[in-house]
Amino acid sequence: MPTSSAAQDSLPLWKQRFFTPFVVSAQPARANPARGLAITTQAGGQGQLFAWNPATGALHQLTDTAHGLWEGWIDPLGRCIYYHHDPDGSELGHLVCVPFEGGAVTDVTPDLPPYTLRGVGFSGDGRWLALNPVSQAGFQLAVAPLGDDGAAGAPRIVFTSAHEAWYALLSHDGSRAAMISTARAGGQRRYSTIVLDAGSGEIIAELWDGPEASVEAVCFAPLPGDVRLLATTSRSGFVRPLIWDTASGERVDFDLPDLGGEVMALDWSPDGRFLLLCQIDRAEQHLFLLEIASGQLQHIAHASGTYYNPFAGGSCFGAAGELFALRENSTTPAHLVQLDPASGEVVRVVLAGGDALPGRAWRSVHFPSSDGTLVQGWLATPAGAGPFPTVVEMHGGPHFATTDSYSPLSQAWIDHGFAWLSVNFRGSTTFGRAFKEQIWGDVGHWEVEDVVAGRSWLLEEGIAWPDQVFLLGGSYGGFLTLLLLGKTPDLWAGGMAIAAIADETLSYADTNDALKAAIAGWYGGTPDQVPDRYRRASPLAYAEQVQAPVLIFQGQNDTRTPPRQMRVYGDKMRSLGKQIEIEWYDAGHGVGTQEIVNFLEKMLAFAQRQL
Question: Exposed e or buried b for every residue in 217-236, given b needs 16+ CB within 10 A?
Answer without folding.
Answer: bbbbbbeeebbbbbbbbbbb
